[in-house]
Design a protein that fits this description.
GO biological process, one term: jasmonic acid metabolic process
Helix content: 25-40%
CATH superfamily of the largest domain: Alpha/Beta hydrolase fold, catalytic domain
Strand content: 15-25%
InterPro entries: AB_hydrolase_1, AB_hydrolase_fold, MES/HNL
CATH architecture of the largest domain: 3-Layer(aba) Sandwich
Protein name: AB hydrolase-1 domain-containing protein
GO molecular function, one term: methyl salicylate esterase activity
Number of strands: 16
Pfam family, one: Abhydrolase_6
Strand order of the largest sheet: 5-4-6-7-10-11
Length: 465
């Protein structure tokens, strides 16, 4: 897998050094774009890019440059035996193995991180597999002139429709290659210069076409892989639960607009964006416009998630009991806004004074140990009725009291939220919104709750208020 690291050169120029397991490096520079146009007020997103057939992470270099310079995270991946990935194509036995770099990257996302996946062409099917496996880690999936399957249908349906529609001479000067695998022979294709120029890069700058002729590798679409024919693979509960957006490349010579619209019609409710003048390689022909589209989709995703959280907090089926612990020198009083909001939504909310804090009657010199200081929380958790799973919330120093309670009573704690201040709001910002706290994902009644604790009770996750 290739890795991208960024070094600031000056205020308007960014240098990207792309290194891979083979030790090669390429230095790419772009100083033509006003990167501040792509900044978002609510902080950077993490975009993960997947290339199409025969291509690699390299084809995203313009978009990665723009997004990173604007403060976002951008990770462009090489699928197995593609781009700078060291494997040979005949060594990759299945579509899942081909997709492994993406699956591993999504699986490794930090708890609570919601990625924006962007797949081009065949890369849309890699996205679909990752969305089915890790729906909670994907905030949105963007299909750029891509194969976009629908839940309840086999994943290869869009590939089959494409192959049905194209003419016999579609691949022009491309070369067909028979791979001798350990299973059975498999066919691959190496795109020819004429096909690249006339059907993929027809509106892109000539230097991008030249780059492609130097870097494309043989690729296969795995259309005969069993995973492509499994109609039960993609489910509404997983794949169908992730926000999807389809980006139409309006000047795509490899796939007419009708086929792209057919793909969209298979998945009602999908957000649709159009990029005028974009060829199949929209990341090269219209990188600035593509960045605009990606950030618009990402912004809409955040609004959608916020709306969903507000619905969740009012849902009678997700009532929770929150126990709130203050930070150093504070008391239960600092949670008054959050307690009021949670109670108004029908949840239970208990804000505690630790020993010698807030309105607690003890004096500081009477509290000999941290355990004595934390006793109000320990007693409250111990007293929870059998089967009740609490949500503990600790601000600043209060996170340590949470840790002690979680160690003592793991079977009584469903989740723990450590709320830390964020500059420049200051240390007194002890009140994360009630909606933020309701974002805690609790197990359904009975899930993993066999009375044994099993090490799966409370987990201390740090969040910023």
């Amino acid at each position: 897998m290739a890795f991208l690291c960024v070094t600031r050169v000056c205020s308007e120029k960014l240098k990207i050094v792309r290194s891979n397991s083979l030790g090669s490096q390429r230095v790419l520079e772009d100083s033509q774009v006003k990167y501040s146009d792509f900044r978002m007020e609510d902080g950077g997103k993490h975009f993960v890019f997947v290339h199409g057939l025969g291509h690699g992470a390299w084809c995203w270099y313009r978009v990665v440059t723009m997004l990173r310079a604007a403060g976002h995270r951008a990770t462009a991946l090489d699928m197995a035996a593609a781009g700078a990935h060291p494997a040979r194509l005949d060594e990759v036995r299945s579509f899942e193995e081909y997709s492994r770099p993406l699956l591993d990257a999504v699986a490794a996302a930090a708890p609570g991180e919601r990625l924006v996946l962007v797949g081009h062409s065949l890369g849309g099917l890699n996205l679909a597999l990752a969305m089915e496996r890790f729906p909670d880690k994907v905030g949105a999936a963007v299909f750029l002139a891509a194969c976009m399957p629908s839940a309840g249908k086999h994943m290869g349906i869009t590939l089959e429709e494409f192959m049905r529609r194209i003419k016999p001479d579609f691949f022009m000067d491309s070369k067909s290659i028979v791979l001798n695998t350990n299973q059975e022979p498999r066919t691959a294709v190496l795109f020819g210069p004429k096909l690249l120029a006339e059907k993929l890069y027809n509106q892109s700058p000539p230097e991008d076409l030249t780059l492609a002729t130097m870097l494309v590798r043989p690729g296969t679409n795995y259309i005969d892989d069993p995973i492509m024919k499994d109609q039960t693979l993609l489910t509404d509960d997983h794949y169908g639960s992730v926000k999807r957006a389809f980006v139409v490349a309006m000047d795509d010579a490899s796939s007419d607009e009708e086929l792209q619209r057919w793909t969209i019609d298979m998945s009602p409710g999908v957000e649709v964006e159009e990029i005028a003048g974009a060829d199949h390689m929209a990341m090269c022909s219209k990188p600035r416009e593509l960045c605009d589209v990606l950030l618009r989709i990402a912004a809409n995703t955040k609004k959608r998630e916020s709306k969903q959280l507000k619905m969740d907090i009012s849902s009678s089926s997700s009532k929770k009991h929150f126990i709130l612990v203050h930070g150093l020198c504070h008391g239960a009083w600092c949670w008054y806004r959050v307690v009021a909001a949670l109670r108004a939504a029908g949840h239970r909310a208990t804000a505690l004074d630790m020993a010698a804090s807030g309105a607690h009657p003890a004096r500081v010199d009477e509290v000999g140990t941290f355990e004595e200081y934390s006793r109000p929380l320990l007693d409250a958790v111990a007293a929870a009725p059998a089967g009740e799973r609490l949500v503990l919330v600790g601000h600043s120093h209060g996170g340590l009291s949470l840790a002690l309670a979680m160690e003592r009573f793991p079977d009584k704690v469903a989740a723990a939220v450590s709320s830390l201040p964020r500059c420049p709001r200051g240390h007194g910002a002890t009140n994360p919104s009630a909606v933020d706290l309701a974002e805690v994902d609790l197990p359904a009644a009975g899930d993993g709750d066999d009375g044994s604790g099993g090490g799966s009770g409370g987990k201390l996750g740090q969040r910023q208020a």
